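Hey everyone, long-time lurker, first post.

I ran two proteins through the pipeline my lab uses and got sequence/structure pairs for each. Pasting them in order. The first:
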Amino acid sequence: MAEESMRGGLPEGLASVAGFQLSKCGWWLEQRLEEELQPLGIRVRHFLVLAMLSTSGALSQQEMAGYLLLDPTLMVGLVDELEARGLCERTRDPRDRRRYSVRITEDGLALHHRARALADEVGADVFGPLSDDELRTVVKAIGRVMEPFWAEQRVRPRRKR
């Protein structure tokens, strides 16, 4: 068997697959952030819920599940956990009694700010090899790649598999 060339410690056959590299970069970021968030008593999913609520006012559990691509029952559990800690509050939507509207509390906002600082530190460390211009280019390019996906998610409910 011929020896495969390497790039950055990875066989060229994998290093040249953009989707693989992006997937593993996301996994690495998530693992690092999970470790950093442990002292705050939250996980990445909790942080993402707080991040959404910190800028959105109130969202329904269904909306949040759609944005995070989570099963709605998982979202209910996440909101239950955050609500039990006083980080968010859930109320019935007066226009639709089947829906719950979720808002972040002051304690949730304070915890989100601490968690966001940790997330920013992890991101700065992971993306440290890139210049600011390179990072802006990567973020903009990924945004363009993902535009059709997010547009489709807004139009069509997520399929059950």
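...and the second, right after it:
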Amino acid sequence: MRAITRGIVIAGAAIGAALGGAGTCVAEPAVPSGTYQGTTTAPAGELIWKGKTFQGDTVVNNFAFGLTGLAGTTSQDGNGNTVIDYSPSGLGFLTDRISPNADGSYTGAVYVGGNQVGSFGLSR
């Protein structure tokens, strides 16, 4: 019975995808939920910025002294990269693009108005 139910769910997801997203399918987040330690190319940036915490399709940045802020929402682009939109924090001109590495870490780039201004790394 379990195999039949699973087959129906998978078939429903495939049909929903074929119909342009009709149906209900919950995708795994591009970056698994949790806190990731950060490194950055910004001069002295690691003194202030410590990494990011992901929860589903939301993210917050972690700063020195346990402060958090600069919330964003995540989505996936067509290449399997995670895109962070900081519009929820009032910074619609700011985005991050994160690519997964084979070792489970991530490499990211910061964009202001579509122009790359820095890069960072994330690891558990």
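Reply from user beta_strand_b:
Welcome! Quick read of the second one: Residues 1-26 have pLDDT under 50 and may be disordered. The longest helix spans residues 2-18.
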